[in-house]
Amino acid sequence: MRSILYFYGKPRGILDLNLDPSKSASMVVPHTDDTFTPGPHDGIKNLLWGADHAIVMSRRCFPRIRMRMNKKMRAYSIAGMILCIFFFGAGHRAFAWQRLDDGLFLGKFEPKKKSEICNHPIVVLKISSQIYSFKLLSATEHEIKPLPARQWCNRYGLLAGTNASMYQDAQPLKSTGYMKNYNHLNNSWFNPAYGAFMVFNPSDSSLPEVQIVDSRLNKNWKELLGQYRTVIQNYRMISRGEKVGWPEQGKTYGTACIAMDEDDHVLFILSRSPYSTHDFIHILLSLPLRIKDAMYTEGGSEATLYLKVRSQEFELIGTCESDFVGGISNPLGRPIPNLVGIHKGQ
To answer: For the chain, what are the domain ranges?
Structure first.
């Protein structure tokens, strides 16, 4: 089993530590580059992505190889070894990603703050928008009844899916905020209470494949939305790495949300354990996810996350009820009218 400690200073570096107690640290690499684009051409970048565990302690990303170490670098390596022994020797799993496929990683995180009702790991699917495309499925566009996430994904050939948004009580096929997919309008109304827009399918190839746009902070947000074929409006949770809105309250729910990190990965996030949204945002910011922007998509038993990649399959919903499905205990998902999913390729 291989673990990596990523720490920072001047110079920054990586310590690759084999957990076999008979072996010592094998490599320390100084930080000279802010890029982090894994690929077969760059073995050292793939080192982090292929690790069983990692502790991320820097907002910077990944280095190029430079094998010569000065005294300060050796001091960092010793400090890194001590920290690794402290964290991993105590069985601490602070940051563990399971690689499912190219550009697709699954993380399960145990927050320090515990729910008063039940405690389950927060499940995060990290997705590279350079490898995977995003698709919005809605019952109004396909003229069908709402489906559980599993059925949406299996019917339309998606690897994973989660709630696109909450839906209206009076018109349960419609989103509570603005939603369009190419020429189909699920809801033409801009909800003034919402400030986050997930956009993808750009009309101009020079634009990012996917973004979360904050209409409170971006004066040209309407112009930007017009350059994307798919737009989904929801409540803001995090913007530019900071909590927005959501004062403390007593109501608690399991939560589904969609986020983007500082490296522009898209994160599908599901918490079965109920928290107030105020507390859940603080939990997300405390985890080593490096979230840049996040939006709330659903709560309670309708919150859902489905995944089927190779031999891995599960469907989770935002409740504490138990059943054993695909290796993770949770009941089968509820029908939802709108889903965001992924498939491989552009």
So the answer is: 2-95, 101-344
